[in-house]
Each structure stands twice: as structure tokens, then as C-alpha cells.
Amino acid sequence: MAQRHQHREFDDSQPKTGRRRFSDQESRDRLRSRRRDSSSHSGSAQRRASRSDRHQADRYQGASANQPELRLRAPRKTRSTSPITAGVVGAKSAERSKVAERERAAGRPGSTSADTYSVKPERSRSALRTRTSTGSGSRSSVRLGKSSSQSVESAVLGAGSAQQPANGSKGSRTSDKKTKRQRETDRKQKARQREQRERFLKRTGIAAVSVLAIALAVWGIGTFLNSSIFFPHEVEVQGVRFIGEDNIRQLAAIDMQSSTITMDTTAIEERLEENTWVAQATVSTYFPRTVFIDIVERTPAVVLEVDDVYWVASSDGKWLGTTDEDATTIIDPTGSVAPANVEALTIFPVEGIVDPDPEWGGTITNDSLQNVLAHLRGLDVRIVSTVQRISAPEIGRTSFFTVDGVELDLGRADNIDEKSTIILNMLEEHGDSVVLINVRSIENPTLRRLP
């Protein structure tokens, strides 16, 4: 550090005080020693040094102003462009400026403005390390005081703040780059979400339009099919022999304002089969406006007297109603149908049945009567056509009487086909002389003839 000192000789004109006068060399040595002490101690040591300097300055009041000038120059240091070094140098320069001001205030030699220290702020990086080293044992190291340390810290912070904008701008650029990438990612994500939303809306719209179109088509087709174009104008009935077509149409109860295409034919069939006379019903429609009903009626087979009332039963075991003594018509007690004409039909009277318990529309539960009906259904038609009356007091005593006066003792309704064959063979072989054929046992049939 370049510094200057000016030494002035004592003025002989001033009165002598008896104090010792120091030579120039001694003055320079003492001054160097005080400067080293002031630079190596803390703030309190500097204050003590300042008081000592002021005290010592009083001793040099009588020094001569014409004393020759003595200047000291510090060795030239290499320049350093480091911000931290510049801060340290600035702090040391400010410290030395304060020392010079104190010296000028004390009136020491070299305290004039012309003798101000010339400080070169340039310092090399190696010099900065030397100045800031903490080794207390080295005499060449320079210790900074409290104020100097604060100045150094301020300088370092200033340098850091000076560097901060550059780093900050770099970080800002990095942050801007990251922000741009993030914005680009967000933009792509939003674009994908928008595309997905558009696809979803498009699919939803297509589905809604499709459903609406299908609904409109169904509604249009349904409206067309249920229009008056397909209302039935004719109901054909087939298969009736006893109760008549009008009764069947009445039982069918077809809605003439319904379409033949959408008509519920199953419901019509169920309504028809609820009547006792109808064994089976089949309903079909024909384009565009025709309804066809095919009926299978129950056939009256036997009639028996119960409490002076003649009840008629069908061949499949249903009570069809009542009839008169001549058995020409059958009356439905409920009045669901008109009286059935059975004048052209042979109905076999049955005798000997105990407690038949008839009920219109009900099923026959008497075993003897069921056995009779089973024979009527199973025997050969050539035999059944000659039957005049039937007696069945018991199942095993069931007998058919023909118009020729032949008694057919049948018994239980089993092996009916073999019984029919035996009866036909005996009638053919013996002719009109036969009066009794017993086929209760097909293994041992018997025959009785006239003498």
C-alpha cells in the first residue's frame, strides 16, 4: 500500500519545553510501529491507538514546519479484477483514509491534504488471501479491525449482489425455459383433453342421433303397423260342429280396432280354451286384414241320469252340460254359449254308476265312468258303432250291449287292442248265434251261443 509521510523539523523559534526530541529515524520507526498496531488490533485497540496518537501529537506541537519531507511508498501490487478483491481494497482504503484524517486532526507530520496517502485499490488474488488469512503468528499477515471486517463483508455482499443479477438472469432464463416447456406440455395436454372431449361429444351426439332415429323409426313403423289399414274385417272359424261359429267369435272377443300384425293371438287362444266345449284353439292372422280360428271341440260320449237330470260327459272326461231325455241338445248351465245341437250324434247311456258327482266344466272323477270312457276311446270303431247301452256298476263288471243283443263283458280297460281283435274274430266266426263274449282275460276268453 502506497503511503506518504511528511516529517517536519522542530521549529527553533518555539519555546523549549524540556521534552525529548526524537530524531527523524526514530519518528519514522515509531510511526511504522503505530500503524502496524492499528491495522492488527480490533476496534477497541484502534480506539486506544487513536487516544495514544492524540496524546503523542501534543508532543509534536513544536515541530518545525520546515523539516524535510519524508515519503514512504508501498510496493506496487498486481491488479485484480475480482469483485471480492475490489471490495477488500475499498475497505482498506477507507480505513486508511480514516487514519489519515485522525492524523491531520492531531497535527502530525504528513497530515496535510497534500500528503494524503495514495492508495491503489488493485490487489491480486494472492494478496487478498494473504490479507484475509487468520494466522496470528505471521508478522506479514494484516488483520482487519471490526469496522474493516464489516466493510469487507459489505464489499463481499456488494460483489455477490453485483453477481446476483447475472445469476438471477440466468436462473430467470432457465425458469423461463422451464416455464415454456411446462406451457408447451400444458398446451398439449389441454389439446388432448379438448380432442378427447370433442370425440366424446361427437360419439355422444352420434349415439343420441342414432337412438332418436331408431326411436322415430320404431314409432313410425309401429304407427304404420297399427293403423286402420290392418284392422281385421273378417274372422273365419273352422272345426266347430256343436256350438256354432257365432259362439266361437263371441268367446274369442277379438278387438276389431287392433292390427292383425300386432294382434296377441295367444291371449285369444287362452280365452277360447277356457270354455268347456273347446278342447284346443289355434288363432292366426293373414295379411292384411283376416283372422283365422281353428277349433277342436270336445265330443259328447255318454249320458247318465243323476237326480232326474241327464248329464252329458265328453270322451276325454269333461262334463259338458245337461240335456233332455231325447239327448238332442246340450245346455250350458252358465249360458256362455247357446245350446249345442247333438241330434245327429249317438250318445251312449250309462247305467249303474254310483255317485258320479257331475259339475259343469269339471273333470270326471268316478273310476267306473273313467273306465267306460277308456273303452270307448280304445275299442275298434266297428264295435263301438254297434253299442246301444253300457252298464258299469263296478270297474271289473263293465259291459257293453250291442244292438244285436250281444253282451260284451270287457272288465278293466287294459289290453284293449287284443280285446277288440278277439271280439271281432268271434263275431265273424259264429255269426248271429253269439249272445255273450267274455274278454276280461285275454288268455282265456269265453263264448256263449244260442243252442
Q: Determine the structural class based on helices, strands and strand pairing.
A: alpha/beta
Specify the biggest β-sheet: 11 strands, mixed
Q: What is the end-to-end distance?
A: 181 Å
Q: What number is the mean pLDDT?
A: 75
Radius of gyration: 72 Å
Helix/strand order:
HHHHHEHHEEEEEEEEHHEEEHEE
SS strand fraction? 15-25%
Number of helices: 10
Please estimate the helix content: 40-55%
Across the major sheet, the strand order is 8-7-6-5-4-9-10-11-12-13-14
Number of strands: 14
| Uncertain stretches | 1-18, 62-70, 110-168
Give a written overview of the molecule.
This protein has 451 residues and is an alpha/beta fold. Among the domains are: 24-133 and 141-158, no CATH class; 230-296, Ubiquitin-like (UB roll) (Roll), CATH 3.10.20; 366-451, no CATH class. Helices cover 43% and strands 16% of the residues. The strands form two sheets. The chain has an eleven-stranded mixed β-sheet with strand order 8-7-6-5-4-9-10-11-12-13-14, covered by helices on one side. It has a three-stranded mixed β-sheet with strand order 1-3-2, with helices on one face. The radius of gyration is 72 Å and the shape is rod-shaped.
